[in-house]
């Protein structure tokens, strides 16, 4: 499954292997950043997509690789968003004097993201440790409940703006920053998957009792995957808070959690590339449909609203059909590079 | 005298009102090859489950390498040196054969730290909370190293890969290394389970019907292999099997269970001639019909 | 003291409604080992069906005894059919597949119902809440002191209806052959099938029963809240599920106990703090129960065969 990756990476000196992908990615991202500098709408859409990719890929670690059922991912996103947002809000007028403003801003942003992510990770630990000892169904309810509890806490806390939300967070998240974290999340997910730790997670998914009997500390592994997943969800939330004008509990509802579950399942539980693809398609599709309808109907907003409304029940029906017709999703538990060669081979043979 | 690796002391387990196992005793030393037999439902697999920590005993003591393990988690007991295979094959089906063993080897590489932790706990140098924290810390550190791809981690992964490959070779599964476990033929799946169990660096190996479903030739080969494994890896082995010829042929001592109780313990010859054993397997009517207890014994 | 009594009464009233829904959850989980996320939305559909029936009957007929009875029966029958359809087309094909698949399907159906009912073309009602017709004229039946404690007629009726439905179910589950079959299926459906029990039919009827109860709960809830809206089933459903878990999932009397307990706790917490914490109570309670006694109050710790 990872033989290709092994061949490529053995060409790189051992000490550098951890850093290598970043040395390539950073210049590319910087170039892209320059290219999209004057296109705010594109940047906005791309950022939304990027955040969803981070959320889907991180959720895939728990639901896909480890085979658990977490349906409260938006809760961790909310924790990250509010904590990071509040941090930046408080330090809005602060700058590190020794550095140019732009750099200082970015450093503070990264600090905010790390703090938001860490708080989300801590929540992941607190939620995960008791519930991962229990059977799968319970985790679903607990994670759902966790999301709701966060929502209620925020709605009752003046400091977080209650139902009206938090505004005025400095909009510092650039295309580069968002996609840097997208890249980082993907690298982390792939590294976990390819390592024996990832294999152990998969073993837990396949047969938890057998894994436990083979010396795998199943509870520990489950909690760890949960914590890492929560961390990245928190970072995604933090990034979100720094490019949207206002955040309120309505952005982090149960519906959002379900949308993320749909992405992970549709892409294939356990497939990182599947989650990425599904996140992109399922984020862009409704937007595209809405724009298409507006264009076709000559600017009639009501029709576009109808499309938006229909989106949700159609989501529901799609979910049911997906489970009935192709429960393994797009790529099953493989990655795109495992599946494509086979598809092409089959077409060449004319089957 | 060789060290006692597994000591089972008057262990019983009840499920509600059902006495699944009563006053079970057993000792395994290095180099032993013992058998556990009995009619279906006698409690043999239950015994394995109690020994490996899947169930906690209702009474009695289980000790692995001198350490009492009642109520311990299965993975902790495994770290002390007890591994098993399953009656109904429980491989990681979507994983390749190699990966199945790699998972076990990865768990084994965590042993080393855990044994030290257990030692420190015994010496009273670490409270159990501190030990838990230290273990968790080590685990998170391990993941950090995995994410950063440190040279130490990469070396570790390569060692695990190599060791897993060797074990596959020992069980004759090398050509199947990259195939998904679920696609392997039945006999090879059973051997893969053994390879996987060996990955955890056990000192005692519990094999639950390792030859089930195999033909005579395969069974004979497997039994020879088990004897070799015992010598090559310095193990003590406890075997559950239904095939009497096999068990009698290879085991030095046999314990017979029926309805959770031990009805006989002894050498193959002693067990074969034991009236209670014959009764348990074949029923009173057989005994009455064949009054002479000949050498045929239970088949 | 008067406050305490009032909270007690309100809590019990809410609790019995949760109980009716919780029973459906626990029965379905018992036979299918599935958390039917769509169950709360079936309750919502029941409320809407009751609404439609009341409209059909007209002002006078709808508040008559016969009228109210018809409204309940119409809603319960309609939801029974809905439950049957859902089980037949969405859950049955997936019975052999891993549980996650069915769980996701359940979520899909829940979504479809919730958001489908929010559309406003054709027969679909639209997102705006509608006032539920006053089929039971609200009157204060028992008043203690100077209006310190008020027991409304609909609270008493609600309690009685809920208890009646629960007793009927209790009878069905524990005194009839069908009930025995249902319990057999919930222990081990493969063995039950081997014993000649028509598990498909048993499961289908279990669904229908649960859905009918949910419909009843829906109407009672609509009477209490005086309004219905497409998302009303979501939170009641979640809380009812929490109640079922607290009582021990799969345990029928446990579901009732859990639901009453939850209703009371919720009412007391809200009464003595603020109503904005209402939704968090259920989940907070759940987490505490899961930490202390995960199998629930009455549940049995089930061992997996290794």
What are the defining features of this structure?
heterotrimer; A: 351 residues; mainly alpha; two-stranded antiparallel sheet; 73% helix; B: 299 residues; alpha/beta; six-stranded mixed sheet; four-stranded antiparallel sheet; 11 helices; 47% helix; disordered C terminus
Largest interface: A-C, 43 and 45 residues
In terms of per-residue confidence, which ranges of chain A show pLDDT below 50 for 5 or more consecutive residues?
Answer: none
The oligomeric state of the chains shown is heterotrimer
Quote the beta fraction of chain B.
15-25%
Radius of gyration of chain B: 21 Å
Structural class of chain A: mainly alpha
Strand % of chain A is: under 5%
From the N-terminal CA to the C-terminal CA of chain B, the straight-line distance is 34 Å
Task: Characterize the structure shown.
By secondary structure, chain A is an all-alpha fold. Chain A has 14 helices and two strands. A two-stranded antiparallel sheet of chain A has the order 1-2. Chain B is built from eleven helices and ten strands. Chain B has helices at 44-52, 74-80, 97-122, 128-148, 151-170, 186-199, 216-232, 244-250, 268-273, 275-282, 284-289, and strands at residues 4-15, 18-29, 33-37, 59-64, 67-68, 82-84, 204-208, 236-240, 253-258, 261-266. The longest helix of chain B is centred in the middle third of the chain and has 26 residues, at 97-122. In chain B, helix 3 runs parallel beside helix 6 and helix 5 (151-170) crosses helix 6. Chain B has a domain at 96-184. Chain C has 306 residues and is mainly α. Chain C has helices spanning 2-32, 39-62, 65-91, 99-116, 153-175, 177-187, 189-194, 199-225, 232-247, 252-272, 278-292; strands spanning 130-131, 140-144, 149-152, 227-228. In chain C, a hairpin with a 4-residue loop joins strand 2 (140-144) and strand 3 (149-152). The model of chain C has no long low-confidence stretch (mean pLDDT 84). Classes of the chains: A mainly alpha (351), B alpha/beta (299), C mainly alpha (306).
